[in-house]
Amino acid sequence: MEHNLAVGLDIGTTKIVAMIGRKNDYGKLEILGIGRSKSLGVHRGVVNNITQTIQSIQQAVQEAEAAANMKITDVTVGIAGQHIRSLQHSDYITRPDSETVIDDDDIDRLINQVHKLVMLPGEEIIHVLPQEYKVDGQAEIKEPIGMYGGRLEANFHVVVGQVSSIRNIGRCVKSSGLSLEGITLEPLASANAVLSQEEKEAGVALIDIGGGTTDLAIFRDGIIRHTAVIPFGGNVITEDIKEGCSIIEKQAELLKIKFGSAWPGENKDNEIVSIPGLRGREPKEITLKNLSKIIHARVVEIIEQVYVEIKNYGHEEQKKKLIAGIVLTGGGSQLKHLKQLVEYITGMDTRIGYPNEHLAGDSDEDITSPLFATAVGLVLDGLKRQQRKKVETETITETEVEEEEADTTEENVNNIVEEPKKERKSFLDKLTERVKDFLDNAE
Asked: Where is the composition biased (Acidic residues) (predicted)?
């Protein structure tokens, strides 16, 4: 596959999306092809039927390949699901020599120490995100590299998930004939697609309402501060409509999309929708007021759970206030009057997040829908990964050339060794490698 291309694969509960994109001359994202299929083997973000998931992935990938007229080999995959939780943790290391400056190795040592935390059986640390550092008791340091100090401590945001779920996703991707280029946490991918840098600085909560789960990511001062996955999404609303109106799922979904509203006060009592009965039975008449009451009850429950998480982060403290409020994205955010309801319950400014922040100007309207926020974020993540690899290979080649040219005196060798600035591997890259190794050995 070409170098400046990336493919995002969003394995959701309701749909699987494969999206091929590349950067255009202006640094914006151009979508070349998109494929989507109904997701059959996924429940609440977790794969529960490998064979069906593989079929759905292959279908989405073939559709994207046909649209872009090219073959897909590597993909960047998102992970979410009800098994993901996060915790705050602080740790420190004592440096052997406080006369030297703090470098990447010290930070790696500190991060690796966090990875030794004892987790529940079957759980593994997915992400370790440093929040702020302390050097010899001096607090609120954003970047400690280059400072002197004997004791280096940091607060971390640690994201934890079920190993088996992650491996199952890896398995599905591999069995679909694709290779895993990277794994990313879905709330982070969606955030990259719909949030601006200013919002991340000011403090913002991103709520991605999917079919099976609602993902939350909170940013402040440009750093991710809190993540959570709530095991409810648009499907539970459809389920409630199905039960409450005694109709089949397909009709419930259509009712929700066409006539659904999260605000019951909007509908008059005499607004009625007639639904054809099954096999010669009488048609059913449903008042829109009742429909929105059913939707309202469930949506309120989802928002309140999310709001509890926002409060857990500490939004009510003056120092941690989220000035930019809430951004809603994902398929569920297209529900009528949802923005108003969220503002009413939380008292926070709210907007709907469209992934057009990074997209080229002439993109189709379909692609800029909140439905595809995660997929766009995954493509961006894949492109960023490639950029990093490119920089690394260039650096290595330059070093080799320099080494050949240089006289091998002590000084020159020392200079060369210090030259290339090695990009620190994010833990997700290491996780991707581990999942790959596991799958290779398990075959």
From this structure: 395-410
